[in-house]
Automatic annotation (TrEMBL):
This is Pyrimidine 5'-nucleotidase. The lineage of its organism: Bacteria, Pseudomonadati, Pseudomonadota, Betaproteobacteria, Burkholderiales. SUPFAM superfamilies: HAD-like. Signal peptide: none annotated. Pfam families: Hydrolase (PF00702). InterPro entries: HAD-like_sf (IPR036412), HAD-SF_hydro_IA (IPR006439), HAD_sf (IPR023214), Pyr-5-nucltdase (IPR010237).
Length: 245
C-alpha cells in the first residue's frame, strides 16, 4: 500500500479548483480579455462591439479549450501579449479566496503533486505563493509549457497529457486529474487517468455562466461516467481516496 501511495501523482488544476477564481479574478480576466479582443478585432476591420467580443471570447474557449488559441489561430496575436494583458490586476492578493487549511489538506494527500494549469506562469506562481501551496508541488506546468511539436496544446489536449506523463515517467493508472472543468476530465479518462471533479466554485447563475463561457454546473450536470469522483471541495478528496486508487 505504501509503494502504491508513493507512485500516486495528483495533477491539480488551479482556477476554481484550488481557489475561487469566479469571485473576482475571472470577472477581471474577462474584462481584460474583452478590451484586448476589441482592439484586435477593430484593427482587423471586424465588428468590435460587446456582443462581437463576447462571441469571440466564449466561442474560441468552447472550440479550442482556451480563448488564447482562437486568438492566435484566427488573428495571429502573440500568446505572451494576450496572457500578459488578460492577467493584469490592481491587487491580485485581495482577489484570492480559497477554502481554509488548504495547505494542510494537500499535505495529507499521499503521493506527488503537479500543478497543471491553463493559466500563465507568473499569475499561477503568484496565486500559489499567496496561498502557501507552492511547497507541496513537485512541478508547475503553466500554459506556456504546454507545447507539443512547438505548438501550444493546453488542456484538454490528450497529446499534451501524453507528453507530460512520458517526460515525468508516469503511468496513467497512477495519475489523478483534479479539475472544475468536466471537458478536461473526459480526455484524461480516455487515456486511463483517474478523475476528480471539484464543484464548489461553479456558478449557479445562468447569466454568469454565459458571460464566463461555463458549460456545466453542479445543478445542471450529474456526475458523468468519465468522472470517478465528484466532490464539492479539495478537502473532501481524502475521504474519497479509496475510489481514486
Amino acid at each position: 500500500m505504501r509503494q502504491k501511495a508513493k507512485r500516486l501523482t495528483w495533477l491539480f488544476d488551479l482556477d476554481n479548483t484550488l481557489h475561487d477564481a469566479s469571485h473576482a479574478i475571472f470577472p477581471a480576466i474577462h474584462q481584460n480579455m474583452n478590451v484586448y479582443i476589441a482592439k484586435v478585432l477593430q484593427s482587423c476591420g471586424l465588428p468590435c462591439d460587446t456582443a462581437a467580443v463576447d462571441e469571440a471570447r466564449i466561442g474560441y474557449w468552447q472550440r479550442y479549450g482556451a480563448t488564447l488559441l482562437g486568438m492566435v489561430h484566427h488573428h495571429q496575436v502573440k500568446a505572451d501579449d494576450f496572457l500578459r494583458e488578460a492577467h493584469r490586476f490592481d491587487n491580485l492578493h485581495d482577489m484570492i479566496r480559497a477554502e481554509r487549511n488548504l495547505a494542510r489538506i494537500l499535505h495529507k494527500l499521499p503521493g506527488r503533486k503537479i500543478l497543471l494549469t491553463n493559466a500563465p506562469r507568473i499569475y499561477s506562481h503568484d496565486v500559489m505563493r499567496h496561498l502557501g501551496l507552492h511547497r507541496h508541488f513537485a512541478r508547475h506546468v503553466p500554459i506556456e509549457a504546454m507545447r507539443v511539436h512547438g505548438r501550444l496544446r493546453p488542456k484538454p489536449s490528450k497529446l499534451m497529457l501524453k507528453k507530460l506523463m512520458a517526460a515525468e515517467g508516469l503511468r496513467p493508472r497512477d495519475c489523478i486529474l483534479i479539475e472544475d472543468t468536466v471537458e478536461n476530465l473526459k480526455g484524461a479518462k480516455t487515456l486511463g487517468l483517474r478523475t476528480a471533479w471539484i464543484t464548489q466554485y461553479l456558478s449557479m447563475d445562468s447569466s454568469r455562466q454565459a458571460i464566463a463561457g461555463v458549460r456545466a454546473t453542479t445543478k445542471s450536470t450529474k456526475r458523468p461516467i468519465y468522472v470517478d469522483v465528484k466532490v464539492k471541495s479539495v478537502g473532501q478528496l481524502f475521504r474519497q481516496l479509496h475510489r481514486l486508487r
